[in-house]
Write a structure and sequence with these properties.
With 230 residues, the chain is mainly β. Helices cover 13% and strands 34% of the residues. It has 2 domains: 6-179, 2-Layer Sandwich (BirA Bifunctional Protein, domain 2), CATH 3.30.930; 185-228, no CATH class.
Length: 230
């Protein structure tokens, strides 16, 4: 397997937008020290101040299991961060989360994906040293440092490790936990209901007023925006 090269930028509007604008770069990763207009799911922005975290996008070949691509990518990131000593989990549809000492669920990172003709562009934001203040969020942001993480590699080393595991997203991985669990109430753009558990293919079974639905773990290009609460 040939390693995907990493391009390191100082400040950019968005690593995701940068790769979309430059298809001539081929398969590669782009890391930025800061983004001026970082992108989240849907129309959301992602605050990415200098020194606060990791802002990485990668153009990669499309893998066969596209339906669980983003879930697999976040599980791979969680695996890379195991040595930091924080119990990380995956929140539907594709966020990296953890529990504070008081038990509150907090968001550490998120991912987006855009499918092109012959590739997929993944965009990842991780709060490492600090996180924005968003008290209105049902699941507020937090940073790895605020949760007591230790042995955090340099941003470049972490980006290179993530690019390496992203080249093998078909290998099954285990995470400490997934959220929601059976009995949790969730709400998204198109409805709401009570979680009935995760399926083997990464979909979430939800009991709604209209019956049982299976929600994809995340959609590449035009992902649904979701909010949740317990």
């Amino acid at each position: 397997m040939v390693a995907v090269p990493l391009i390191h930028l100082g400040v950019v509007d968005s690593t995701q937008s940068f790769l979309v604008r430059h298809p001539e770069l081929g398969f590669c990763g782009v890391l930025a020290d800061a983004q001026t207009t970082g992108r989240g799911r849907g129309d959301n922005s992602w605050e990415s101040a200098p020194g606060a975290g990791l802002w990485l996008s990668a153009r990669l070949p499309i893998v066969p299991q596209a339906s669980v691509l983003l879930l697999s990518a976040m599980e791979a990131v969680a695996e890379i961060l195991v040595p930091c000593g924080v119990n990380l989990g995956i929140k539907w549809p594709n966020d990296l989360v953890a529990h504070r000492q008081d038990g509150v669920l907090v968001k550490i990172g998120g991912i987006i994906g855009e499918q092109k003709i012959d590739c997929v562009i993944l965009g990842l934001g991780l709060n490492i040293h600090s996180a924005p203040e968003m008290p209105e969020r049902a699941i507020p942001p937090a940073s790895l440092v605020s949760l007591g993480a230790a042995s955090i590699p340099s941003i470049v080393e972490l980006a290179q490790s993530i690019l390496s595991v992203w080249q093998d997203l078909e290998t099954p991985r285990q995470v400490v936990f997934r959220w929601p669990v059976h009995g949790d109430y969730i709400q998204w753009e198109e409805g709401s209901g009570v979680c009935q558990g995760w399926q083997d293919d990464g979909r979430l079974a939800v009991q709604t007023q209209s019956g049982m639905v299976l929600l994809a773990s995340g959609e590449v290009s035009g992902m649904m925006e979701a909010s949740s609460r317990s």
